[in-house]
Amino acid sequence: MGLEIGLAGRGPARWLHAFIIFLILANVAAVVLESYPPYTAAFGRAFWWFELFSVGVFTAEYVARLWSVVEAPRNKGLNPTLARLRYALSPLALIDLAAILPFYLAFLVPVDLRFLRVLRLLRLLKLSHYFPGLDVFLYVLRVQLPALMAASLVMLVLILFSACLMFILEGEAQPEAFSSVGAAIWWSVVTLTTVGYGDVTPLTPLGKVLGAVIMLLGVGTVALPAAMLAGRFSEEIQSRRGQLESLVAEMIDDGLLESAERDEIDRVGRELGIPSETVHQIVSSQRSRVRAGAFCPHCGKPLRPVD
After folding, report:
1. Are 169 and 202 in contact (CB under 8 A)?
2. What is the pLDDT of residues 251-262, one digit of tens each?
3. Distance, CA of 100 to CA of 121 (rounded, Å)
């Protein structure tokens, strides 16, 4: 299952993943460059061959992942067909499929090239295979979804409420800018998010007071979801690190860490989204702890073998 190791792997697997990451980023660059007509005219054929090569690589990667998923520890004892079907319906597999499907659909259904170009940007999501931290972030998003929806609801109420008030206060003074509540929503969103484009501004005294209040409310309201995610993300990282530390402490408690145990620690670290450098630090820290307790504090003689 070298495809699942990511950049934490060693040797050929690490180079393969680095190549695929480079290819993903190169595809994004190609999408941007193709939007310039002079580049399309000069290098259109090169862009086509590059797209063909990229789709071939991504298709081979998708098929290899789908075929080898039965070897994953979590699928031991599971029917191979069922294991592959379950993987094919997983979010990461659907992302991989979305990265290549538009290319093949273009041969069957007429597709606007501009729309197809946007779909190719979905290949950026394939990076989630190679950066475990993204998996942690997506998990935090899923856990915090109810709280984020509540915060979004508060923002929506503030936007609509302030738009209605601004329509009442500024509608007569600026009939073009605030011709309706719908038109005032643009000002409300820009002000509440503290972006402040300046294309529409209140002129009446009461309108300016309302604008100041909305800006002050926006500072806290818009920052609230970010603060919630940051706090929960930090808690999740610490929780996963604690799980791995407990596992390492249990395996190294006898003073020895066999290669099979180290492989298991690396596998669990990858599943928890913990970088390999952090895993190494945890193992080194636990080894130091065991060594410190492996000698008699009185005579200095070893009490048990130390790796």
Report:
1. yes
2. 877 667 778 888
3. 11
CA–CA gap between residue 262 and residue 185 (Å, rounded):
57
pLDDT-derived band at 7, boundaries 50, 70, 90: very low
Q: Tokens in use for 249?
A: 């402490």
Q: To which residue do tokens 């659907």 refer?
A: 94
Work out the angle at residue 270's Cα, subtended by the Cα atoms of residues 284 and 240, and round it to the nearest 5 degrees: 70
The predicted-structure confidence for 224-235, as pLDDT tens digits, reads as follows 888 888 888 888
Closest CA to 218 of 187, 198, 191: 191
CB proximity list for 30: less than 8 A, separation 6 or greater: 47, 50, 51
Name the percent of the chain in helix, strand, coil, to the closest 5.
Answer: 75, 0, 25
pTM: 0.64
Contact 276/269 with Cβ under 8 angstroms?
yes
Beta bridge partners of 302: 295
Q: What is the SS3 string spanning 23-39? A: HHHHHHHHHHHHCCHHH
